[in-house]
What does this fold into?
Amino acid sequence: MAEEVLVFGAWGSPFSRRVEMALKLKGIEYKYIEEDLTNKSPSLLKYNPVHKKIPVLVHNGKPVAESLVILEYIDETWKDHPILPKDPYERANARFWAKFIDEKCLSAIFKACWGEHYEHEKAEKEHEKAVKEVSELLQFLENELKEKRYFGGETVGLLDIAANIIGYWLGVFEEASGAELLTREKFPKLCNWANEFVCVTAIKENLPARDKLIAYLRNRFGAGNASK
Amino acid sequence: MAKNDVKVLGAWPSPYVMRPRIALNIKSVNYEFLEETFGSKSELLLQSNPVHKKIPVLIHGDKPICESMIIVEYIDEVWTSGPSILPSDPYDRAIQRFWAAYVDEKWFAAMRGLRSAQGEERKAFLDQVTEGLALLEEAFGKCSKGKAFFGGDRIGLLDIAFGSFLGWLKVTEKVNGVKLLDEAKTPGLVKWAERFCADAAVKSVMPETEKLLEFSKVLAAKMKGAPPPKN
It folds into this structure.
């Protein structure tokens, strides 16, 4: 039976890019459908009625939603180039940090770049606080990386893919908003990792164009908290 | 395996703590339950979970594992001689994980909102909770395929994820004077809830509703008296 793999995504979304990165790593052919998130297609609403969000992977007509759930599904379905280790403790560890990134990092990064607008006197103090929070979170990841080339070890794994937000989008957010968060001085390992990460073919081919993303972010969220 | 090789750091009222305990029971693994004192965090907890400083933590040998559903999957992968908690088919696994994430991120978030909300806001949360239960009733039909649990004949991942909230669901019903699980609207879930609570792996760790109700009053009083949250 011919296999049909569809990916519903949005060009700028790190979440749908995760799915594409995993499929590319495993050499799986798929059809990509770009969604206009201001005008969601009937197909998207049919395949993800609960959240009505991208990404959705549809494999032979069966939909899977939520990027981390999709990554695990991809790894369990296509066994070449595994993205999770075999050892249960290491698997738990990768899942823990992937969840950490989604639950803590993204919102903290956004706040530091484009946080709520405060009156002038409060603004700088709140910005400092937000930057400090991001710093603490990044420190955890810096420590987790240790001397490894990738979070996954010698090859890119689930956590590297989940950390695409840190590996590429964070730098773009910084440039778009003027915030300085992932500095080489404080996070040398994470910076090295980010440079390696974006060079991996399956990753490189799936990064949205930097200029386009910066323009979109500035348009959507404004010039940013840290802009002078 | 020696009992002190497996420890669970937790507290009896926490639905999240129930989850690894149910999973260990399913696998017939002996463990030591280290109860945290309400209102303070032990050194062991702070060392074992420095990132979140939260319960539950599973300590296996000297390795800490955090986040309740991650712990459940770990337990399933380590103790393979016991009954499986996750199904073997990747698609079924994805569906279980999807709904477990939904229960935690959307449904219980609405339940928590209900606890402290007033007036219009309260009605909004209640609607969200009820809509969520309707979705879960439908999911139950699809996942169980006519069998007793979301996991089929035996308790599985989604049963554990959702079932662990049943104690708090009953407390919410009493406190708010509403019926959330209803024979008319969610007949499948009503029967499932009874079976879940009666299951051998669950019974010993599911707190009695009255005890939980008393605790919820203590919790509410503490929250009222507590200083406003920093962020």
